[in-house]
Amino acid sequence: MATTPEHDQRMASMTFTSVYPHYLAKVEKKGRTKEELHQVITWLTGYNEATLAKHISEKITFKEFFENATLNPKAQMIKGVICGYRIEDITTPLTRQVRYLDKLVEELARGRKMEKVLRVS
What we know:
The protein has 121 residues and is mainly alpha-helical. 59% of the residues lie in helices and 3% in strands. The protein has helices at residues 5-13, 16-29, 34-45, 49-57, 62-67, 93-109, 114-117, and strands at 81-82, 85-86. This is DUF2200 domain-containing protein.
């Protein structure tokens, strides 16, 4: 399923701060930790813990969040379906990046080993 311009705009304007508590609740509900969630986010974005904490406390959009990120080169290895969208078919870079993060959080919550989540080979 292809994303629509409206969907892409909604992703760009959504704040990271509004979604982060849902990520945290999802992984903690499944027995994972905040530290593991942060490890996944910092792996994907290149942010350090201080920068991540700053972004969590500010009301920045996903567009701003990913504009300042240095995406991990292995991020392109993240594949599959998330929220009804096949990640590798998403053409809008920002929407794909948000879905990368969603997929990593899902894998973490499902109990996948951290080495697999972080694409360590």
